[in-house]
């Protein structure tokens, strides 16, 4: 087995539970596991673990899916999924080209991750490859007036509440079916800018400045 290894597998020291001939981690994973104890732990597997930055086209595929499905993935999560796709694609191309050896005839790529978001994203991508749409999507729902939105908002456009949560939905025949957690209660939150000022509404000048600064940070 060739393994793409997520942060949680390393932090929880679970590498010994998997039999892999070759392992890969991304630069973001390396940043997340930096620390004296974990460095010593990783050294035990240094002979078969390589650091690889995923290709841009695979990163874009995951970024696009995250935006479309409202997934909550970190940069490290996106890199792990993208690298899994990239290596699977490379293995498929080897087999299609007839380049079959004793080493790759039974070889498979697996993503070693305990993260539900990563696993869900991988399932969605496999479904997309097969042309099915059975997986659930996510939308954002105002807890106060129950309005639904395709993208994450800080304030509801109808009632201006900042109590907006992500919910699982299924879209069929133009209708939306919600899957709500039983007994779920959202804690009241306060949106603050980088100076610690509480932001109350979209009309607030401080909020507009907060959005501009956030946009500049994302562009950089």
From TrEMBL:
SUPFAM superfamilies registered for this protein in UniProt: NOB1 zinc finger-like
Q: Which Pfam families match?
A: PIN_6, Zn_ribbon_NOB1
- Is Oxidoreductase set as a keyword in this record? no
| Residue stretches making up the Ribonuclease PIN domain | 4-87
Name the UniProt key words of this record, in alphabetical order: Hydrolase, Metal-binding, Nuclease, Proteasome
Kindly list the biological process annotations in GO that this record carries: maturation of SSU-rRNA
GO MF annotation: an example: metal ion binding
Its Gene Ontology cellular component terms are: preribosome, small subunit precursor; proteasome complex
Limits of the Nin one binding (NOB1) Zn-ribbon-like domain: 136-188
PANTHER family hit by this protein: RNA-BINDING PROTEIN NOB1
Protein name, per record: Putative RNA-binding protein Nob1p involved in 26S proteasome assembly
Which organism encodes this protein?
A: Trachipleistophora hominis (Microsporidian parasite)
Q: Highest lineage ranks of the organism? A: Eukaryota, Fungi, Fungi incertae sedis, Microsporidia, Pleistophoridae
